[in-house]
Amino acid sequence: MGKVPTRLVSWEDIVEWSRGLAIKVRESNYKPDVIIAVARGGFVPARLLCDFLNVENLISIQSQHWTEAAKAAEKAIIKFAYELDLSGKKALLVDDIVDTGESLILARDFILKHWKPAELRIATLQWISPVAKLKPDYYYIEVTEWIWFQYPWTRLEDTFQFMKRMISEEGKHKKVWSYDELVGKFLEWYEIDVGEKYFREAIRLLIEEGILELHDDMYYYRG
Ligand code: ADP
Hints:
Distance between the termini: 16 Å
Number of helices: 6
Shape: elongated
Oligomer: single chain
Structural class: alpha/beta
CATH architecture of the largest domain: 3-Layer(aba) Sandwich
Strand content: 25-35%
Bound molecules: adenosine-5'-diphosphate
């Protein structure tokens, strides 16, 4: 897989989007007793929704579908499935984005079957309407063309994966890189600037994984 359309999302965006999402929930007069974050992407939005909606109860469920940035794994699974009694409670299931929707569908079905809340609604910051198999009850942004949103909580993971892909593709004809060349090529490929701290961390991981080797300030592709 090569270049993917990518957009950098800031912490400020996340706070604004979460506030906007909370307003939609509030205006619908739904008052959840408990918020359920879908791990891991729903954690930050769920915590912010607790704040904006004044909800004290926050729990989570881990439903995993994607293993690395912009690359689909085989299927979604519930990790650490545990029993819980939510009878009589209104719940709000929160995630960052509905892409295929598979992990969210799995989480929803698990919760309805095993935790049995009185009501369960779904809220996500974003909804990729043309590909999603599920439409959340609340969403802040409808995305009409598929994009990889580079959220602040996966900044290092994504930078590492993107850089790894770029170096292996470019590695067919380029084996030795300076730091500036790596960053320059990354900006050309993905058109997002994650900043020097993240570039340096990602390069450190690439060295740790044996993909790059550092000699005299130059990085050698060993992948
Ligand atoms: P769901 O649609 O239920 O969220 P997916 O399997 O489509 O399930 O996605 C699972 C997780 O992968 C998302 O919650 C998000 O953290 C990450 N993800 C998927 N697609 C994107 C995307 N286009 N941009 C950023 N993150 C994504």
